[in-house]
Amino acid sequence: MNSAINSIYTKLLTCPDGMAESFTKTVSYEKLYLEEFQNLAEVAVGLEDWLERIYNEGRLHSSLGYLAPIEFEHNWLAQKRLECGLVI
């Protein structure tokens, strides 16, 4: 593991929250361990792209009823609009 990854990984692992630990594992195995980064700037760009394209839009989450977060949010907003009588 190169130093840029090690630095990010160490910071993420210091969070005691179970959800953060699960997220850290997911990021590590699905992104960080699969690529070579030369510096923290490359890590930041790569993570931003992965979070938007894969984690938030494409990856299904069991805690969200096996929906992608973006799909879950759209469904939730549609339901709230219906509850408030704001059908568009």
Automatic annotation (TrEMBL):
| Coiled coil (residue ranges) | none
For this entry, list what GO says about its biological process: DNA integration
What Pfam family does this protein match (any one)? rve_3
Every Integrase catalytic domain range: 18-69
> Which InterPro entries does the protein's record reference?
Integrase_cat-core, RNaseH-like_sf, Transposase_IS3/IS150/IS904
What is this protein identified as? Answer: Integrase core domain-containing protein
Q: Which organism is this protein's natural source?
A: Candidatus Chlorohelix allophototropha
What are the top taxonomic ranks of the organism? Bacteria, Bacillati, Chloroflexota, Chloroflexia, Candidatus Chloroheliales
